[in-house]
Amino acid sequence: MPNTVDTAHIQSLDSAHFLHPFTDFKDLNARGAKVITKAEGIYIWDSEGNRLLDAMSGLWCVSVGYGRKELADAAHQQMMALPYYNSFFQTTNVPAATLAAKLASLAPKVDGRSFEHVFYSSSGSESNDSNVRMVRRYWDLLGQPQRKVIISRHNGYHGSTMAAASLSGMSYMHAQGDLPIPNITHIEQPYFFENARSGETSDEFGLRAAGWLEAKILEVGPDKVAAFIGEPVQGAGGVIIPPATYWPEIQRIVDKYGILLISDEVICAFGRLGHWFAYEKFGYKPDLVTFAKGVTSGYIPLGGVLVGDRVAKVLIEQGGEFNHGYTYSGHPVACAVALANLQIMESENLPERVRTDLGPYLASKYAALNEHPLVAHAESCGFVAGLVLVKDKRTGERFDPDLSVGMLCRKHCFANGLVMRAVGDRMIIAPPLVMTHAQIDEMVALILLCLDLTW
Ligand code: PLP
């Protein structure tokens, strides 16, 4: 690709004016941001003409791959017809209503419970803020205003606004900005590799980890707990895949105490784990489901909450006006792009392809990575995967966190044409769902090369 971008100029504008999210500004200014200029399929290009295989789908977003004309066409057509109109004052628009019905039809019903309603936002963070508002409103309307506490998990990620960052279990986020806000508390994550006792099976660990929820409910007082929120598989925390026993036991516990269950599927929905929604895979019945990212494959911002019957009935029949919402709730262009994106996913059968073909193929390749001297544990679930890098595989000795082995590995990835994300000593991927087997082979060969260079 010809280099038509003046990299140094863009970098100087960037460092002078653009404060990047989750970034050490001074450090970035010293090195200069990589300027990404174009993308096609599963590859991105920087302004120097280097091609990188994007094993992170941007930021867990670009499920249908880059360069899909159908999505650009949908945005163009909708912009020409109706680029924006609000949905506050008793108006709606065609894409927003159509998409809400489509999402309702895609969400699997479990034990007769269905999701007939959608509350829209523009991001995962906003959606989780909406969850906090809806959950509190629900219990107020039921005459139990003391039920305010939402339980979440350490190392879970639910976003970066004040409420969503509070739900997130990242201590480094809480350390800035006096978080969490009141009435949000955390339990430990179900991370087998780190938290299992010696000799404990995965199933035993899953039950014990779910038990931490019951202990917390009893500590807080069951009549004060409003909801539990979790990601089906923790993504930003490092692709932490829970044992099979975990979610069914969580379901048993929330049922026992009558508390609401929120499934944050910002990463896991829309085929990423081989299902339209991941609660189906793990066999639980949430009351609210957060979505964003994959709903538009990241081509345009859109998020929201699928509102299950239990909550919707109370909000609609008893609620009166709900004093919450966003200028861009039900944005017509974002919803039109989402409809076109879901149509691609349906016509290319992406959830099923991940479930029956791509996911198992990736799993077999990842199993082989366990042979590498640097890898203590490699695992995948659908089309997310993680590797734990250790200093000494025999003893399990971990790297000094300050040396950041992950950042070193990521540097080798960047230099060798691969985007893979580092979370401490875990290397994680979430590739586009449109990969071929040959492209999975190519990605795994690059991962091996970068592991060798890190070793
Ligand atoms: N929830 C989960 C599970 C996420 O992974 C993320 C982002 O990665 C969010 C919420 C926040 O989404 P956003 O960055 O769109 O606000």
UniProtKB/TrEMBL annotation:
Swiss-Prot/TrEMBL keywords: Aminotransferase, Pyridoxal phosphate, Transferase
Q: Which SUPFAM superfamilies match?
A: PLP-dependent transferases
Extract the InterPro entries matched here: Aminotrans_3 (IPR005814), Aminotrans_3_PPA_site (IPR049704), PyrdxlP-dep_Trfase (IPR015424), PyrdxlP-dep_Trfase_major (IPR015421), PyrdxlP-dep_Trfase_small (IPR015422)
Which cofactor is recorded for it?
pyridoxal 5'-phosphate
Q: Which GO terms describe its molecular function?
A: transaminase activity
Q: Which domain of life is it from?
A: Bacteria
- What is stated as this protein's family in its record? Belongs to the class-III pyridoxal-phosphate-dependent aminotransferase family.
Q: Which NCBIfam families match?
A: PRK07480.1
Q: Mind telling me what this protein is named?
A: Putrescine aminotransferase
Organism of origin is Rhodoferax ferrireducens
